[in-house]
TrEMBL record:
Main localization of the protein described in the UniProt heading: membrane
Transmembrane regions: 20-42, 150-173, 179-202
Membrane topology, as annotated: Multi-pass membrane protein
Name of the protein described by the UniProt record: VTT domain-containing protein
UniProt similarity note: Belongs to the DedA family.
Compartments it resides in: Cell membrane
Cellular compartments per GO CC: plasma membrane
Organism: Nocardia donostiensis
Amino acid sequence: MASTPQALGSFEPLISAGPALVWTVVLTFVFLECAFILGLFLPGDSMLITAGVVMASHATGEAQVWLLSVGAMVAAVAGNQIGYVVGERTGQHLVARKNGRYINTENLSRVAELLQRHGFFAVLVARWIPWVRTLCPMVAGAAGMDHRRFTIASTIGAIIWAPVLLLIGYYAGNFLQRVSWLMPVVLVVMVAGLVIGTALGIRQYRREMAQPAEDFDLDAATVPER
């Protein structure tokens, strides 16, 4: 069900931009969050829910949200592979940041311990914990976790993660459309929050990367092949 232009008011330009804009944002965010340190600072979960709500306002939203779910899964798996390779090439010595909020030795130790204790299942669980989701592939690659097992676990996690959040947003958006004035208000708030969260995240990333580098040795945190 699509909202009327009158109900959407000044928010119509975002909706008329169509699925292309949503696809670009979602695939970019998901890939970056799963592949690179920058992804630690991006609002990935809220972005997927927001994308689902926006899709509910589009005439072809139902078909698009399912296709986007597949696209987001592929982007997540591809990002994880890049993250794994980056960690593998880095080797046992990862670079943390002194006084870093996320990229610190404590968080790297937590992820390494999680992988060491739970292996395959840790990669599944990591998908639902934002900062772990980004660090996990890199730590797994650096610690030498079996690549095949990592790929299977990260793929299963992506199949569950992306569609669940997108569909939550989509069906919530369908419900919101029952109240004509509520949908545009919620969209404005959610998109504004996403933009602000992204801007603050990039700012925090720049601050964190400006901190002095600190070596983190994974020699004592070898991940078993579970």
